[in-house]
Amino acid sequence: MTWHVLHLNDVAPTPWRNGGGTTRELAVWPETQNWVWRMSVAEVAQGGPFSAFPGVHRWFSVLSGAGVQLTIENRRHVLHDDTAPFDFDGDVPVDCQLLDDPTQDFNLMVKQGVGARMERLRVPFDRTLNTPKTIAVYAGNTGARVLFNTEVLTLEPQTLIWQHLPVGSQFQVHAEHALWMEIDL
Known about the structure:
Blueprint: E1 4-7, E2 14-15, E3 21-29, E4 37-44, E5 48-49, E6 56-64, E7 68-72, E8 75-79, E9 86-89, E10 94-98, E11 103-111, E12 116-121, E13 125-128, E14 133-139, E15 144-148, E16 151-155, E17 159-165, E18 170-175, E19 178-184
Antiparallel strand pairs: 1-17, 2-3, 3-4, 4-11, 5-10, 6-9, 6-11, 7-8, 7-10, 12-19, 13-18, 14-17, 14-19, 15-16, 15-18
């Protein structure tokens, strides 16, 4: 099986309109203009509002830096590189403030009604799919090792792999700093 493999440094950064950072779009499906899901890494250089994405559900995870404080509907959420990914509706206003220095953050966005989840992995992780899914693993700064059925994939740091997979696919992920994503087909 051929996996989609994307290295962060192979994707050019796109500056934000507000000047607060850049985004590197790692993967979209099925196409850039009419996507069902999108995965990207952002470099947040200064605090400010998030762009609105009506009809989209979002997951946000700090990869590096001191962290951020997200304020949504007057509730504050402090996120670091060791906290669980945070999910929220893309049409709700979000204010982001840096806790100190700039951060690097991973974003998963899916259209409303599409089932998805994101988990932070720091210990060996086992999973067998009971429904067909799109699976993705993003290796943080330490890389990762993925055992898929009988195939072994070694991911360099800051690498994303993804693939549409059938029921019964089996995984083991060994990583000190990685993200696991599942998206319903």
